[in-house]
From TrEMBL, chain A:
Species, as recorded: Nitratireductor thuwali
Protein topology in the membrane: Multi-pass membrane protein
Protein name per UniProt: Branched-chain amino acid ABC transporter permease
Pfam families for the chain: BPD_transp_2 (PF02653)
Residues that span the membrane, as ranges: 12-29, 35-52, 85-106, 113-133, 168-186, 254-279, 285-305
Domain of life from the UniProt record: Bacteria
Alphabetical list of InterPro entries matching this protein: ABC_transp_permease, LivM-like
Protein's UniProt keywords contain Amino-acid biosynthesis: no
UniProt-annotated location(s): Cell membrane
From TrEMBL, chain B:
Name of this protein: High-affinity branched-chain amino acid transport system permease protein LivH
Topology of the protein relative to the lipid bilayer: Multi-pass membrane protein
Organism per entry: Nitratireductor thuwali
Record-stated family: Belongs to the binding-protein-dependent transport system permease family. LivHM subfamily.
Predominant location category: membrane
Regions crossing the membrane: 6-33, 45-62, 68-90, 102-122, 142-164, 193-215, 227-254, 266-283
Top-level taxon in the UniProt lineage: Bacteria
InterPro entries, per the entry: ABC_transp_permease, BCAA_transport_permease
Keywords recorded for this protein, A-Z: Amino-acid transport, Cell membrane, Membrane, Transmembrane, Transmembrane helix, Transport
Subcellular localization: Cell membrane
Cross-referenced Pfam families: BPD_transp_2
């Protein structure tokens, strides 16, 4: 019987990683601390994507809409209604969850490639919607949130989210919460049944599981986490634009997850981090950074098809969650 | 102008879109049907075709038709060669795993796009049409070249259909599509067939692109929109159904032409995308596809 709470090596590894990330806040030079804050927020996006793709086997190409729902839910309420960060963040989460339930209920009627195309098309509709309401969203140009609006009020204090250190720590807090939740999820019966659905849907149906309900819940949860990442992005970096709803932002989490390792808890972080630095290094040495990214992708898929963490798990450390 | 002429103009423009789209979608559908590979780089093969068309057509002086014809022959061949090599080097080694091939073709997309940007640049460049007659319709003159595009696309579609249904090559392709193992057992070189199909798909996209460059200019980002549209066409038409692909392309091309002439283009795209998605939700096998095997 597997305990719901991680123990031993697993627990040490995950706490260790969070502690290293915490320490990096005080060690990293300014530029890299900025990169890491961004990576931590986007790794949450990747972890959310991983719930649907990695664990449940739902290859969606529409997750940008969930990220953007969080982004716009939080950003628009702050910008137009002068809401505080807490209610705005909650609005972002609610928007993402509602959209995920709606889109999930419709798109899950299809499977395989059709599911991929349908989610891609819904995301495209969402993207076009953000362009259509340019009066409120300012389309591609986007909105910049005022610094005074990005203050997280606490009973007995307030955090200025535009401060680099605070931003890093808030991003790390969100990352840690989601990492903990995923670690819990993979041991919980619900998480197990998701993996079982990925492995053999028919058998799960025969065993009496409501496959559709489980998948819908997976999409909803995945959408919620992605929306959390989007809402956090809006309040931490103060920018909201329709570029985040474009197809590219649906492809990126897929690449991050595959690179790091699908259905691993730490893969999304490793994948996001590596991809960021590959692009960063490549673009400082050559203007042709897309070429490098393309070659890296092909190389990885040829030689590390399970992703980095997935390969490590397969060859050396079968206990990795 | 009254309503009628507008509608006619929109219909003609829609048919031109449909002609190009059906060629491109046919390429995607072949690759998808025979190899079960979702080729995300298909739009870049299209772009590459257009960029090469500019290149070949400017190499020669003289009458624009000479350069255009050269491009029409050479650029699909070059693109097919590129696709063939990519298939042998990458896709075949991935054993055609659906997820792996998607990632690999995304990688390919980035590489082709970057090479086009580096060697061709970020400008949009025109290719001169081989002829520039205008056909005088009752209300307006219409470019004869655009009508020729529609005709060329039809010829090409019929040609592909004949190859698929009437020749040994087509038979071999269909055999591989239905049952890979059995085909292999009967001595069909499945690997070579796959590489050939992938190259053929890319060549069809490139051919469509050469037809379009005298109307739209060649640009390194031009592959994205037609990629999305041809995905939609392939799925709506039903996997592996040539008839479905043509019908869906005409449907999408016409509605795109007509709706964006009478309404806001963004709203039109929004509604069209949404409606098509809903069709798929309630009829996942597409309009003409058989139920999933």
């Amino acid at each position: 019987m597997i305990s719901l709470l991680p123990r031993g090596k697993t627990l040490v590894l995950h706490i260790g990683i969070v502690l290293v990330l915490l320490a990096l806040n005080f060690i990293l030079p300014e530029y890299h601390r900025g990169v890491f804050s961004r990576v931590l927020v986007l790794a949450v996006f990747a972890m959310g994507y991983n719930i649907a793709f990695g664990y449940t086997g739902l290859l969606s190409l529409g997750h940008a809409m969930f990220f953007a729902a969080g982004l716009y839910g939080a950003g628009l309420t702050i910008y137009h209604l002068d809401w505080g960060v807490w209610p705005a963040f909650a609005t972002g989460l609610a928007a993402g969850l509602a959209l995920a339930l709606l889109v999930g209920a419709l798109a899950l009627r299809t499977t395989g490639v059709a599911f991929m195309i349908v989610t891609l098309m819904f995301a495209q509709v969402f993207y076009l919607t953000t362009l259509y309401f340019t009066t409120y969203t300012r389309g591609e140009e986007g909105l910049v949130l005022r610094q005074q609006a990005r203050v997280l009020a606490f009973p007995g204090g307030a955090l200025d989210l535009s401060d680099p250190s605070t931003r890093y720590l808030v991003a790390l807090t969100l990352f840690t919460l989601v990492l903990g939740a995923v670690l819990f999820l993979v041991r919980a019966p619900f998480g197990r049944s998701l993996v079982a659905i990925k492995e053999n849907e028919e058998r799960m149906r025969m065993l009496g599981y409501d496959v559709f309900a489980n998948k819908l819940l997976s999409v909803a949860l995945s959408g919620l986490v992605c929306a959390a990442s989007g809402a956090a992005y809006a309040v931490l970096f103060g920018y909201v634009g329709s570029g985040f709803a474009a197809i590219q932002y649906s492809i990126l989490p897929l690449l991050w997850v595959l690179l790091g390792g699908a259905a691993t808890t730490l893969g999304p972080l490793i994948g996001t981090l590596l991809m960021f630095y590959v692009i960063d290094l490549a673009s400082s040495h050559t203007t042709a950074h897309l070429l490098v990214v393309g070659l890296v992708l092909i190389g990885l898929i040829l030689y590390f098809p399970k992703g980095i963490v997935g390969t490590i798990r397969e060859r050396w450390a079968p206990w990795l969650p | 102008m009254a309503f009628g002429p507008y509608l006619l103009l929109a219909t003609l423009e829609g048919l031109v879109t449909a002609a190009v789209l059906s060629l491109m979608a046919l390429g995607l559908s072949l690759v998808f049907g025979v190899m079960r590979v979702v080729n995300v780089a298909h739009g870049e093969f299209y772009m590459l075709g257009a960029v090469l068309a500019w290149w070949f057509s400017t190499m020669l002086g003289g009458h624009p038709a000479v350069g255009f014809l050269l491009a029409l022959v050479l650029s699909p061949l070059v693109v097919a060669a590129v696709a063939f090599v990519a298939e042998r080097l990458v896709l075949s080694r991935l054993n055609y795993e659906p997820e792996a091939t998607i990632v690999a073709t995304i990688g390919l997309l980035y590489i082709i796009q970057q090479l086009a940007l580096s060697f061709y640049g970020a400008d949009a460049r025109p290719v001169e049409a081989p002829f520039s007659y205008r056909i005088q319709l009752p209300w307006f003159g219409y470019s004869a070249y655009k009508l020729a595009v529609i005709a060329a696309s039809m010829v090409m579609m019929i040609g592909t259909w004949l190859v698929l249904t009437r020749t040994k090559i087509g038979l071999v392709m269909r055999a591989t599509q239905y049952d890979r193992e059995t085909a292999q057992a009967f001595g069909i070189p499945v690997g070579k067939v796959y590489a050939g199909v992938f190259a053929l798909g890319a060549a069809l996209a490139a051919f469509a692109a050469v037809l379009i460059v005298p109307i739209q200019q060649a640009h390194y980002l031009m592959g994205h929109d037609p990629l999305l549209l041809s995905f939609i066409v392939v799925i709506i038409g039903g996997l592996g159904s040539l008839r479905g692909t043509v019908v869906a392309a005409i449907l999408i091309g016409l509605s795109d032409g007509i709706v964006s002439m009478f309404f806001s283009p963004t709203l039109a795209k929004m509604l069209a995308t949404f409606l098509v998605a809903m069709v798929l939700v309630f009829r996942p096998q597409g309009l003409f596809g058989a139920a999933a095997r």
